[in-house]
Predict the structure.
Amino acid sequence: MTSHDAPGTALVTGASSGIGWEYATRLAARGRHLVLVARRAERLEALAEEASKAGAAGVETLVADLARPEDLARVAERVSGDDVDLLVNNAGINGYGPFAEVDADLLGRVLNVNVVALTALTRAAVPGMLARGRGAVINVASLLAFAGDLPPDRLPQRAVYAGSKGYAVTFTRTLAAELADAPVRVQVVCPGLTATEFHLGAGDTPVSGERRIHDEGGMPAADVVTASLAGLETGEVVCVPGLTEADAVARLAAAELDLRRGSGARMAPRYGRTDERAE
Ligand code: NDP
C-alpha cells in the first residue's frame, strides 16, 4: 500500500467551511496539490491563500453547486484527472425538519449533494486510482446514520438526512469489501456533533460572511480530521472519531450477520402459516 502522505492531488468537496476546511489545511501542510470545491467563491479564495501558506504544492478552486448536474459533471471531470489520488466527499446539507412539512425540493437537493454527488465523484475517481495502483476516497457521513429508531427529542428531525448518511455508510463499507484486495482505500467518517457552522443556516442557503461556529458545541473539526487521516493510514473503513470502544463496529457487523440469517427460503414462524395468509 502506498503512503497517503505522498504529495499527490487531493480534491475536497465542501472545503469552504468546517470539516472540509480542516481537511484542506491539513492536506496542504502535507504538501499536496489541492482542488477545493464549494459554492462560496470568496471563502475558497481565502482558503487557497491559507493553504498555500501552509505548504500546498498548488491550489485550484472549483466553484460548484453539487446539487446541479452540470456543476457535478465539471467536478467529476476534474476528479477523474490522473493526478488525483485522494477524494474527500465532505460536502453535505441537512434539510432538517418535520418530514411532512420540509420543502420537497430541498429534500431532493439533500439527496443530490449527500448521495448522488458522493457516488458520482467516487465513480469518477476510482477507475483511475485502480489503474495507477494507488488512491483513497474518504466519505463523510454522520453518527445520525445509526440513529434511525431514536425519536427527534434532542436529536433533529432528520429522516432524509439520516437516510442519506446511512447510504454513505453502506455504500462505503460495501465498496471497501469489493476493493479489499485492491490498492485503493475507502473510508467512511461518522462524526458526532462537530463544532462547525452546520447548524447555523436554514435549508441549504450558505452562511454569509466569515467562518463561524454554531452554538451547539461538539468536537473540534480538527479532531475529526486527525482521526480520519490516522484511521485511513491504518485501513480503518468506518472511522468514528469520538468512539473509544472501536470494537463496536465489529459488533455492528456481527448484528448484521444475525439479521442476514433471515435470508432463507422459509418464512419466520411468528408471521403465521403461509396457507392461512392465502385464505
Ligand atoms: P458546514 O456547514 O460547515 O460545511 C458544509 C460544506 O458543504 C460547506 O463547505 C458548503 O460550502 C458545502 N456545501 C453545501 N452544499 C453544497 C453544494 N450544494 N455544493 C457544494 N458544496 C456544498 O458543515 P460541516 O463542516 O459540519 O459538514 C461537513 C460534513 O460533515 C457534512 O457532510 C455533514 O453532513 C457532516 N457532519 C457534520 C456534523 C456536524 O455536527 N457539524 C456531524 C456529522 C456529520 P458552500 O456553502 O460554500 O457551498
About this structure: Strands lie at 9-13, 33-38, 58-63, 84-89, 135-140, 184-189, 194-195, 219-220, 238-239. Residues 127 and 192 are 31 Å apart (CA to CA). Residues 13-20, 38-40, 43, 64-67, 90-93, 113, 140, 142, 191, 193-194, 196-198, 204, 206, 218 surround NDP (CB under 6 Å). The domain at 9-245 is CATH 3.40.50.720 (Rossmann fold).
